[in-house]
Every structure is written in structure tokens, then in C-alpha cells.
Design brief:
Distance between the termini: 67 Å
Largest sheet: 8 strands, antiparallel
Structural class: alpha+beta
Radius of gyration: 29 Å
Helix content: 10-25%
GO molecular function, one term: metal ion binding
Shape: globular
Keywords: ATP-binding, Biotin, Ligase, Nucleotide-binding
Oligomer: single chain
Cofactor: biotin
């Protein structure tokens, strides 16, 4: 059965019914639900998503977590949360060591089953990734008397027949024809995926694919496919029950990918004709029926845009990351359907099924964007650290019926190296594709995820690209348009943005001055030389991120005039003059102070700045320190700037003006956050000296960007290396990363293959 498409509504914001939530089947003997408590053998946003549906159907939830993930929302929102130990290599006797060899509790089958039984759970939901497609896990769950919220063991095993050994790959790759693609058979998300363009690369790439697959999913098996460059990745959502019925819930276009991992998905696929859609859905249903598929799954296809022919790829026997967009256009809660069919429910008994067709057809258009902690400008290198501020869009663009935020992060949460880089999914619905694109770009721009580099701006550039508007865009969309997608946008008032960090620190210092202090009526930075022109308020603001990264500006504040409103200030911006002796603190300070003494700032027209509002935000995590997140609305020469601000470790407000301070500002008009450093003249000059010394040493030193494991060392001590040459391969955040040197010289390292390296430690030297 397939779900029909409905006529497009012309209403830009029509009211919609909530998702249809199938109730849990009852036990005929006791009259109680067959499933009353579910253990979620997963983490993060998918665990939160499952918890939300379980609440709707009155099912209790058990979350499992590791110590490195204790701040995740799924831990707090579940009815019960159980710590399974640590992922740290230094922990030798954590519960994760019991029962098998793995150090990852999410891959430890005996431990997960014991935890489910000890919490009197009736079922286990595997989420996606980890053990979600592991036939041994499904078998063990059912052998323990529990319900596995996934397909039958027989279906998982039959799908496992596609797995091939190394010998088979070597023998068959030439017959398929290069290029080919290697993929981890037990999961997705781009893990364990490699394109092999010639036979000589096959063995090395297979080893890396297997290594990455084993760490992510606990299995080394890989599959081999023909790689089609100019193709669309289109998948069909299916749901089957244990009585042989299989239903197709339409398609998803997942062609916007980087590193073979999806980043933007949409439904319906604008490229498909009605006949193609019907044929692909019918094919997916036949495949599901053939393997007696029960549960939610996805049948994946490659569509050749030249010939309009489609080719079967594989069946993903689990819930997909992108399932929310199908829910939004089809109106069904797919997690509830998973629970329904796992408890023995029949699809034909659902009231929405009538005469072999769904009563409610597909409506509108939905888009999902995966917000990832990564640096697009650095080959999408994963990032980690503390989320200084998490603030969803508000108003009509905020969370609601047509805008979904699926995430486990919050203000103060840590993005860990131990997990996937995806930290949130943002989903929007609109009546048409054009409206959905515009809505998503605005929602992204107004979402503040501050403190960790993300692909937020990159996603907006993808959506607004003219090439994305064309239904024929392919999986080569990002690689073909990368230069344009990485450009930083130009926005009005951008040249005034350095004023904001300076204004923030001074506003906080002024607000923090509530207690009496000696000479409290004397302004800060006062010098007992009132005739000296340098005796004025001046900050130095350095832009850390963005196109102007590394540039510093002097922000000079005019003294208030008689009767001037406290909210009105006047300031002048000018570049920091370049000293003749770079790195000399005294020279740097003197050239700035002499610039002020010569009254050079008088040649700069001052900007009138009015603080319209300054509203503190509530931290999402309990913290012993006062709130350092807030929203500031400012008018600069009559033009409005909004900034969502985080000031880490603000300390005492009275000392802010006199020391160096990092400030993060998310500007909705820009669509991302910028990082600044605000200094006094003296602290800036001192910092310049330290920076000059470290810069030269940094060229010949490669440090670990995050805690990692060394997978291979490509050079021996004493070998000659050239600038840009890869010398190491490390693993972190479930990804393999290549390490290159910046200068030419002789290679040296103290590490060996398999060593664990802490963040900031020196990986290698070039001497």
C-alpha cells in the first residue's frame, strides 16, 4: 500500500492536526498494555525523541548513559536513568567491561539486557546506529523474554546476507567497475564509508572502513556498491506488521551529503514524477513483504538523474535519523507505530486505514537540517567543547506544530569527543517547498548554538543556493558548490559589530556595581592626569571568528555629556595601529596610547549607541555562578542590532573592564555567532607578546585538537616531510582524521600506533 499525495494548499500557514499516535495493544488476559516500560539502548536526541512518544502512550522509559554524557537531556527526561560506566580508556573496571570485550556500553549486549531485566522493562528500543541492526542483539533480547522494537531476527539475518568478506571484495570490485563505494553493513551516518577509485586503493581503504565500522557499530563487515556520481539518494519509508502487511509512507530526498553523510533531507522529492514515486513505493513494499519485514524501516535507492532509472541499494532495518520529515507530511508518529506493531498490532486495524488506502494523504513539504559540531572550512573537521548558549528561535519560528527541534543539548552541555558530531535536528513544515526553504533558513538564522563551531551557516548557504532550488540537484551538490557554500555573508552594520562586545562588558560592569566600594564615584580606568588625552575609555576588540578573524579594533567611548541618558553612548571605531616591533608589549602599548594622545580618534565620526534592552537568559543547567547569557538589543545610529550573548566565566563584574574577556555573540541578522576578545590597552599589548612567541613555535608543532587515538603513523622519526603532507591518522568523535604538517623539515614523534593522546598534547614536531 502507498500513501497518496494531496493537492497543495495555498494558505501559507494552515492549521494542522497533531500526529496520529497509535495506542499500545492490550494484553487480552490482564487488560493492560503489552508494553508498559521501554529501555532505550541509545542516547542523545533519538533517546529524547523516543521518550516524547512514550509519554503520549503512557509508557515508562529507562535511559542508559555513560559518565561522559551525564548532562544529556535524555538522562533528565526519562523516568529512570541508569549509568553504565565510562567510555574513558583509563577506566579498567567499569560495568562496560563485563560480559564481553567492548569498552562501549552501548555495544555491550549482556550489559544492556541485564539492565533491562533489572529495571523490569518489557521492551528495548535500539534507536539508530550502535546495535540497531545487529541480529545477535535482536536474538539475545528476545531470548531474554523481552520485545525488540525492530524487525525480526530472520529479517535482520536475511539482510545480513549482503555482507561480504575481504576476499569477495577483491574478486568482485573489478567486475563491478571502479569507482566503487565501501559501506559499513551494520549502520549508516557515513561511518565506515569510502570511495575507491582504483584497484590499488582497495585494500587500504577497506581496512580503514572496517576499522571505523567496528568502533561505531561493533561489526567490521562491509558491503560493496557501484558508485554513481551524478545521482540522487532517494529512500522509501516502510512500516510492516507481524501479520504480513507492509505500508509505504512516501519518499525522502537525502542527496545533500558531505563525507557521504546526509546533512539536509526533504520530502517529497521534487524530482520524482507521480509514476516514479508509485513504482518506487511499490518496489519498497514488495521488498518488505519478501523478507517479512516488521517494524519501521527504509528501502534506499539511487536515482540516475540522466536516465531517470532507479537502483536498489539496501534496506536500513531501523528508524532513520530523518524520519521526522516523513511524520510531518504524512501525519503519523512513526515511533508509536514501531511500538504498536512490536506489540502485535495489525496495521489494518488502525482507524485511519479504510478500503486499502490511508484516509489522510500526504500534505505539504518538510525539510530537516542536521546541526553538527564541525568546522566546514576545515574539511568539516569535528569540534567539541561547551555549549555556552543554546536558544531555539522564538515567535512564529520557534518550536511548535510546524517547527521541531530534536536535540539533547542545552546551555552548559558538553559536546563530547566520544559521540557523533550531530548535536541537533531542526525540522520545518510548510505548504510548499519554496515556503519550507524560506522558513528553514530563517529558523536556522535565529537559532543560537554558541561556543562550539557548527555547520549552521553552511546549512543556510545550502538552502539558499540557486542549485538547491533545482529539483535535479545530486549527491555532488556540496562538492560542486563548496566554494560558494563556504562564503561568509555580508550583512548591514557588519562593520559595527566589534562595538557590541565592548558595550556588553561595560554594561555588565555597570550593572554589577551594586555594592559600595572605595572611590565608587570615580569612574573606572581613571588616571590622575585629567589633561592627558589618553585618560579616556578605550577597549581593544579582536574578532576571533569570521572573515575578519584576527583583526583588532580600538573602541573609544566618549564621556557622557550633561543630561545625557545612561542608555545613550557615543563610541568611535578605528583599527589598532601596527607597531614597528611586532610582539613587543611596550611598543604595542605606546603606539596605541600615542594614537589617543594625538587625538587621532577625533577624525572618526562617533556612532550613537542606544541600549534598548538587556534581558538575562536562564541557564539550562544548574550552575553555582550567576547567569552569563542574555539578549541585548541595541540601536546604532538608529539601526537595530540584536545579539544573543554568552560571556564565559565573567567573574566579578567590577573587574571585567580591566582584564581580557572572551565574548560570544549570536547575531540573527548574520545567521551565526561570532567570537570576540575584549581587552584593555595593557592586557592587549601583553597578549600580543605572548601570541608572537607562540605563533612561530606553532608552525612546527602539531598538537592534538581533541582527545584521540592514533590509528597510524605514516612517517618514521628522521624522515623528511613537506608542507601539507599527511603524517598521522587519528580517530576521534567516531571519525578517522588525517593530520598534516604545515612546514617542511624532519619528522619526530614520541607516540606509537594505538596510543591515546589527550587534547593539547604534542602529536609530532617538524625540526
Amino acid at each position: 500500500m502507498t500513501v497518496p499525495q494531496s493537492p497543495v494548499s495555498q494558505h501559507a500557514s494552515p492549521s494542522r492536526s497533531p500526529l496520529y499516535v497509535a495506542s499500545t495493544p492490550l494484553d487480552q488476559t490482564t487488560g493492560r498494555p503489552i508494553i508498559q516500560r521501554i529501555l532505550i539502548a541509545n542516547r542523545g536526541e533519538i533517546a529524547v525523541r523516543i521518550i516524547q512518544t512514550c509519554r503520549k502512550v503512557n509508557i515508562s522509559t529507562v535511559a542508559v548513559y555513560v559518565t561522559e554524557d551525564a548532562s544529556s537531556r535524555h538522562v533528565r527526561e526519562a523516568d529512570t536513568a541508569i549509568c553504565l560506566g565510562s567510555l574513558s580508556r583509563t577506566t579498567d573496571k567499569s560495568p562496560a567491561q563485563e560480559g564481553n570485550d567492548t569498552r562501549n556500553p552501548f555495544l555491550n549486549i549482556p550489559l544492556l539486557i541485564r539492565t533491562a531485566l533489572s529495571t523490569q522493562s518489557h521492551a528495548i528500543h535500539p534507536g539508530y546506529g550502535y546495535l540497531s541492526e545487529n541480529a545477535s542483539f535482536a536474538t539475545a533480547v528476545r531470548a531474554a523474554g523481552l520485545i525488540f522494537l525492530g524487525p525480526s531476527t530472520a529479517a535482520l539475518t536475511s539482510l545480513g546476507d549482503k555482507r561480504a568478506a575481504k576476499t569477495y571484495l577483491r574478486r568482485n570490485a573489478p567486475s563491478i567497475g571502479f569507482p566503487v563505494i565501501l559501506k559499513a553493513s551494520a549502520g549508516g551516518g557515513g561511518k565506515g564509508m569510502r570511495i575507491v577509485r582504483e584497484p590499488s586503493q582497495l585494500e587500504a581503504e577497506l581496512e580503514r572502513a572496517q576499522s571505523e565500522a567496528e568502533r561505531a557499530f561493533g561489526q567490521r563487515d562491509c558491503i560493496l556498491e557501484k558508485y554513481i556520481a551524478a545521482a540522487k539518494h532517494v529512500e522509501i519509508q516502510i512500516v510492516g506488521d507481524e501479520h504480513g502487511a507492509v505500508v509505504a509512507f512516501g519518499e525522502r530526498d537525502c542527496s545533500v551529503q558531505r563525507r557521504h553523510q546526509k546533512v539536509v533531507e526533504e520530502t517529497p522529492c521534487a524530482f520524482l514524477t507521480a509514476d516514479m514515486r508509485r513504482e518506487m513505493c511499490d518496489t519498497a513494499v514488495r521488498i518488505g513483504q519478501l523478507i517479512k519485514y516488521a517494524g519501521a524501516g527504509t528501502v534506499e535507492f539511487v536515482v540516475d538523474v540522466q536516465t531517470r532509472r532507479f537502483y536498489f541499494l539496501e534496506v536500513n532495518a531501523r528508524l532513520q535519523v530523518e524520519h521526522p520529515i516523513t511524520e510531518e507530511v504524512m501525519g503519523w508518529d512513526l515511533v508509536a507505530l514501531q511500538v504498536y506493531v512490536a506489540a502485535g498490532g495489525q496495521l489494518k486495524d488502525l482507524p485511519a486505514l479504510e478500503g486499502g488506502q490511508w484516509r489522510t494523504p500526504a500534505q505539504g513539504h518538510a525539510i530537516e537540517c542536521r546541526l553538527c559540531a564541525e568546522d566546514p572550512k576545515n574539511n568539516f573537521y569535528p569540534e567539541h567543547g561547551k555549549v555556552q548558549l543554546w536558544r531555539p528561535a522564538d515567535g512564529v519560528l520557534g518550536p511548535g506544530r510546524d517547527v521541531r527541534y530534536e536535540t539533547a543539548i542545552q546551555t552548559g552541555a558538553e559536546v563530547s569527543i566520544y559521540f557523533d558530531s550531530m548535536i541537533a535536528k531542526i525540522v520545518v513544515w510548510a505548504p510548499t517547498r519554496a515556503l519550507a526553504i524560506e522558513k528553514m533558513s530563517r529558523v536556522l538564522a535565529q537559532t543560537a548554538c554558541v561556543g562550539v563551531k557548527t555547520n549552521q551557516l553552511f546549512l543556510q548557504r545550502c538552502l539558499l543556493s540557486p542549485e538547491f532550488r533545482k529539483p535535479t540537484y545530486t549527491t555532488a551538490f556540496i562538492s560542486s558548490n563548496l566554494e560558494q557554500l563556504l562564503q561568509f555573508p555580508e550583512v548591514p552594520l557588519q562593520e559595527y559589530l566589534p562595538l557590541i562586545p565592548s558595550l556588553i562588558i561595560r554594561s555588565l560592569a555597570q550593572r554589577g556595581n551594586t555594592r559600595a566600594r572605595p572611590f565608587q564615584h570615580i569612574r573606572r580606568q581613571f588616571r590622575n592626569q585629567h589633561c592627558d588625552p589618553v585618560n579616556i575609555h578605550c577597549d581593544v576588540v579582536t574578532t576571533i571568528t569570521g572573515p575578519e578573524a584576527g583583526t583588532s579594533s580600538m573602541c573609544v567611548w566618549d564621556p557622557p555629556t550633561a543630561g545625557q541618558s545612561p542608555s545613550l553612548k557615543h563610541a568611535r571605531l578605528m583599527p589598532v595601529p601596527v607597531e614597528k616591533e611586532p610582539g613587543a608589549a611596550t611598543a604595542s602599548y605606546n603606539i596605541m596610547s600615542n594614537t589617543l594622545r594625538r587625538a587621532a580618534t577625533k577624525a572618526v565620526t562617533p556612532s550613537a549607541i542606544h541600549v534598548d534592552s538587556l534581558r538575562p537568559a536562564e541557564n539550562s543547567l544548574d550552575s553555582p555562578t550567576p547567569s552569563s547569557t542574555f539578549t541585548m538589543e541595541v540601536s546604532v545610529d538608529g539601526r537595530r542590532i540584536v545579539a544573543h550573548v554568552a560571556v564565559p566565566s565573567p567573574g566579578t563584574a567590577t573587574g571585567m573592564v580591566d582584564r581580557s574577556q572572551r565574548i560570544y555573540c549570536h547575531f540573527p541578522s548574520l545567521g551565526t555567532y561570532m567570537e570576540f576578545q575584549r581587552d584593555s590597552l595593557l592586557s592587549f599589548a601583553e597578549g600580543r607578546r605572548r601570541y608572537a612567541t607562540a605563533e612561530e613555535a606553532g608552525k612546527r608543532t602539531v598538537t592534538a585538537p581533541m582527545p584521540c587515538k592514533i590509528l597510524s603513523i605514516e612517517k618514521k622519526n628522521g624522515d623528511s616531510v613537506k608542507a601539507g603532507q599527511v603524517v598521522m591518522v587519528i580517530e576521534s568523535m567516531k571519525m578517522e582524521l588525517s593530520i598534516a604538517v604545515a612546514v617542511e623539515g624532519t619528522f619526530q614523534t614520541e607516540w606509537r600506533k594505538g596510543d591515546a593522546v589527550e587534547e593539547g598534547r604534542i602529536l609530532c614536531l617538524v625540526v
